[in-house]
Amino acid sequence: MSNTKYILGSFADPDDMMHGIDKLQANNISIYDCFTPMPIHGIEAKLGVRPSRLPIAAFCFGALGTTLGFSLLYYTMVYDWPMNVGGKPSFAMPNFVPVTFEVTILLCALGMVATFFFRNHLFPGRTPRVMDLRATDDRFILAVDAKENADHALIDSLLKEAGAVEVKYNDRKYVSYE
Amino acid sequence: MGTHSHHHDYNFNERYEFAGKAKMFSIIAVVLGVAAVAMGLLSGDHVTVERTYANLLLMGYYFTCVCAAGTFFVALQYVTQSAWSAGLVRIPQAMAGVLPIASLILLVIVGLGLTTHNLYHHWHADGLTDPNNANYDPIIAGKSAYLNVPFFLIRQVVFMGLYSIFAVIFAKLSYKEDLEGGLASYKKSFKLSAIFLVIFGFTTPIWSFDTIMSLEAHWFSTMFGWYNFAAMWVSGICCITIIVVVLKKAGYMNWVNENHLHDLGKLMFGFSIFWTYVWFAQFMLIWYSNIPEETVYFYKRWEPEYKPWFWLSIIINFVAPLLLLVDRDAKRKQNVMLFVAILLLAGHWLDYYIMIMPGTVAEHRGFGIIEIGTALGFLGLFVFLVMNKLSKQALVPKNHPFLDESLHHQI
């Protein structure tokens, strides 16, 4: 039993990588993930990646922002220290709209960024975890989980048939620690 | 670089055939519209005539705005080098192609309204600028260096003329690209679009100050131009969406899919929020400072005959798209998009109604044969002219440099 954890097919051309996906899928080999230096339209659907749930987080943070912004205004302007501004009532709705709106947008945006960083293990100062360094440069990488898919020879030949310029057998998931 | 090896069998020479029921109904609508307008103008009743003019201004302005929005859309796609829209850009192009006719119609309405004192009588009447006259109005006199008939008409001609010239050039270059291919047309369109957007951005606020805001010439709001721009842009996007969906339902434009519809939906949603933002910014500043010469605008719209419509406009133009289009899936469904686009077009009709009527017919406003007939007539005219224009060329610019990217658009 080898110690190989992931088999990486490295392609120089995105079309070849798309062929590689087709070939692996035709042989019932599950693809762990795919890394490309640029976005490729249609690849999520092809790999069966589920739609991001980030909008749900965005909605929750936005709703929290609305509540906090409104509460802040209500507490300061109506409850704690009501003031006479231009003879208008303390609790005048149009006054409340801009601040509530801005706090909603602020929390929604910051919350989305935080959620995205958290989910992708990214934050300032953290070494990014990358499975293949050239995936951010000029190579299109297909990663296959070696434990789940036993027939390594078949994977190797399928990847090379599709046009992989290099097939790597990695014992560690990420290379960026090294 | 092609990232997809699978080829689609799209017929890029496909043309829309404008015939049958669509053509017949649009002609019937125009005839009904002409009949309603004639009935109003020939009624002999001063109030009815003025009401007809107000409706003609409303629909003439709406029609021109939508076609101008088509031109703006085309220019914006070039300047941002957008790829997603390449497959459907012939639709805004057709709308832009109708802009010269729309501009002429609006010019005739504005000119006749002005000379017959049915429109703009607030600043164009005898003796308004003469200190010795009983009608003397110092505020209007102070504005007369800008707001006088010759300069007003010159501005109208220059602004709409410029938009129309650009609209025609963009279409010509695109048709030339169909025949000759290459990047020459695209690069030229890119440059001209940048120039057009600067001109358009600076002149549309002034154009709406002139055409609509000057109906109540004492009042002014610097937000008014952007508020009108937002309404114009949302209604333009709605028209594009409706035509896309209708054509798709009729079996045309197979290369346009739910991803392109999604983008149109995002524009519709986003700019409805933008419309509300500008609307509210204008309202709140006036409400907050509470200066009589500014609040008079909203007092008029707060009268019993306008108040329910004032609120309905906010509900249709803000609350409805917010709730109906916020969901991702909703923006990808043809029928939802069709419904919201029609709703928003009705909503912006109401929006313009609330802008125009209190400054013209005020308490004599109505909603009857004249309103419905004029709206129907212009709708028929829009459908007839735009669909006729669309049928003259292939439905897709087949040599557009970003067409391939548009076909693979996925979001």
UniProtKB/TrEMBL annotation, chain A:
Q: Sorted alphabetically, which keywords does the UniProt record give?
A: Membrane, Transmembrane, Transmembrane helix
Claim: Membrane is one of the keywords in the record: yes
Top-level taxon: Bacteria
Q: Name one Pfam family in it.
A: ActD
Q: Which InterPro entries match?
A: ActD
Record-annotated membrane-spanning stretches: 56-76, 96-118
Protein name according to UniProt: Quinol:cytochrome c oxidoreductase membrane protein
The source organism is Sphingobacterium detergens
The uppermost taxa in this organism's lineage are: Bacteria, Pseudomonadati, Bacteroidota, Sphingobacteriia, Sphingobacteriales
UniProtKB/TrEMBL annotation, chain B:
**Species assigned in the record:** Sphingobacterium detergens
Determine if Membrane is one of this entry's keywords. Answer: yes
Sorted alphabetically, the keyword list is: Membrane, Transmembrane, Transmembrane helix
Q: Which residues cross the membrane?
A: 24-44, 56-79, 91-114, 152-171, 192-209, 229-247, 267-288, 308-326, 338-355, 367-387
The region annotated as signal peptide is none
Keyword Transmembrane helix assigned? yes
Q: Name the lineage.
A: Bacteria, Pseudomonadati, Bacteroidota, Sphingobacteriia, Sphingobacteriales
What name is this protein filed under?
A: Quinol:cytochrome c oxidoreductase quinone-binding subunit 2
